[in-house]
């Protein structure tokens, strides 16, 4: 609708390229162009993988004078990876390493985050391809490299060293011999940092679990240069309210032992996402009285490569098993009503839920770059693809109802997913009393069109509130009889 408040007489069709599993992918080539030379770009033919099986996922300069550039090349299913070094003047190319990834830098070396040890850590590689220098190690993971200071020989990074759900900032020398924290690592915290180009100054951002703040700091001083934002005004206002820390399984839970609560399990996405639902309309609404639970199932990131890759080739299986296990464990607690447990998911999380929003329903419909990486080719893993398709039986048997929400303009998870699922549910005779469906016209994956996000949250709250008041015996006649399907000739 292009921002119009009134729908046009005829809709406009927008054609986009979106390669699905097993289909032909766009051909990718590498070119060099001189900014001060108007001649045509020079194409570099690099014979490492066939054109129909090639993804160039990263390109970076690796010498100060821009004499060499390195390419990270992978096959479609991501089980073959080559680093190719290209000499800019001669055009010669050679494979200097066969394995992993990331940012290029100055000096005749480059820094890479690799998980070949089982955990994502920082390594320093010579451009020539010799054995790397291990800069970090142990059973935790690097989550970001914030700055590489070749002048001082330092790398500033973010990691899960204290806990997989926390983030702290550290500095390590380029020889790997010294490592220091830039923040207090004795306290549970979630930090990020933004460094100046020279690497000497940085903005330190604290995101929780207490009130967020920001400071301007210097790497040579323990005292902040100045406070950017301490949220003092908000702190004063919040002091009038009581609050409670969201407990993890390793923490003691302080709750009213005479009250009973309902639970909402929140599935968001696969791998590199961890979140406890902070939205006040769910976690603190006195009318809803729901406990919001987030579970790091198998396949979640930041717990090592083995834990992260367990779901490979069988997306949805282990994740769903772990969510069900967690729900059953919580149902045993005296303050949880075992009859009123819901689950909500967004995108990949929607695929793993019954209360679904933007759900992936069939991996054949999703983009090839992501799908083939985790599920391999459809021709070699057809059983895995078929097993991963959403089944209608779960919707038939769910005690309460379910809500499906999707934007018709979603260019990530196409509307085809939800449309095919609803069609299958209608065909299988799922009761209209159970199923609620909501389309958001022209909304993309972020639901940022015509106030759709606000409506979605209100609709979710309404669904949970109605589920809270549901009685086991309260069934409409449509729930007591199945729709008779017509014979298909």
From TrEMBL:
Cellular localisation: Secreted
Gene3D superfamilies noted in UniProt: alpha/beta hydrolase, Dipeptidylpeptidase IV, N-terminal domain
Signal peptide: none
All copies of domain Peptidase S9 prolyl oligopeptidase catalytic, residue ranges: 288-451
Entry keyword annotation includes Transcription: no
Family classification: Belongs to the peptidase S9B family.
Gene Ontology CC annotations of this record: extracellular region; plasma membrane
Main location: secreted
Superkingdom in the source lineage: Eukaryota
Protein name as annotated: dipeptidyl-peptidase IV
Catalytic activities: Release of an N-terminal dipeptide, Xaa-Yaa-|-Zaa-, from a polypeptide, preferentially when Yaa is Pro, provided Zaa is neither Pro nor hydroxyproline
EC number: 3.4.14.5
Annotated Dipeptidylpeptidase IV N-terminal domain residues: 9-213
